[in-house]
Structures are given as C-alpha cells and as structure tokens.
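testing teh design pipeline on a random one, pls ignore if ur not involved
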C-alpha cells in the first residue's frame, strides 16, 4: 500500500525525495539533560515524503540488520525521535499536517508506522 501511495504521489508530482532541512530547536528536544532555553540547529535529509489528501506521509529507509521477531520495536526505539523532528520540520515548511511516518526496513522488507 505504501509503495502504491508513493507511486501515485510521484505521478501527481507530490513525491519529494532527499529533501534537506535545517531548523532550530530547544536543546532539551535533542537531549533531555540540556536546558530548553539553549537552542541548537538540527539538520538532516528526509529520504522521502509525499502528499495525499492534503496530508503528509514521511518515509525513512533503514538498512540496519535487526532480528525478524523484534526488529520493528528496535527500529522504532532507535529512530522515533529522528522522524518526529522530520515531521516538525515538514509541518513548519509546508503548513500541512503529517499523518504518519514510516520506517522502511530493508532487512525486514516492510514498512513500519511509528504512529
């Protein structure tokens, strides 16, 4: 289903790949031990996102080798915060709500929703 949505978004020119971003956040959002009044710049490259029904869907590809039975939980715990930052950046830039974020695990050969 995710692949079909991405294909349709591509055909509609609503698929965006390897989009760089930079944003300022409170330092505590990166590390809870840091003070919130301190600001840091976060930069990254969003693998892919697409717009469907005026909502944004983010896809991040991961090649981590994880066990089949517990891999989803491992990947979510490793990358949830990264995808939350991506969602925040996308919402600020596009003014659109992020409906879901997906990790596409190459080793598990499936998409994992973090929402």
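output:
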């Amino acid at each position: 289903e995710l692949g079909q949505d991405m294909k349709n978004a591509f055909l509609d020119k609503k698929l965006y790949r390897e989009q760089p971003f930079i944003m300022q956040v409170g330092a505590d959002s990166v590390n809870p031990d840091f003070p919130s009044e301190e600001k840091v710049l976060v930069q990254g490259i969003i693998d892919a996102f697409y717009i469907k029904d005026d909502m944004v869907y983010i896809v991040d590809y991961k090649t981590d080798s994880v066990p089949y039975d517990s891999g989803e939980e491992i990947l979510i715990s490793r990358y949830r915060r990264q995808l939350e930052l991506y969602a925040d950046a996308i919402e600020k830039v596009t003014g659109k709500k992020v409906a879901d974020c997906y990790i596409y695990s190459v080793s598990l050969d499936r998409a994992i929703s973090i929402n």
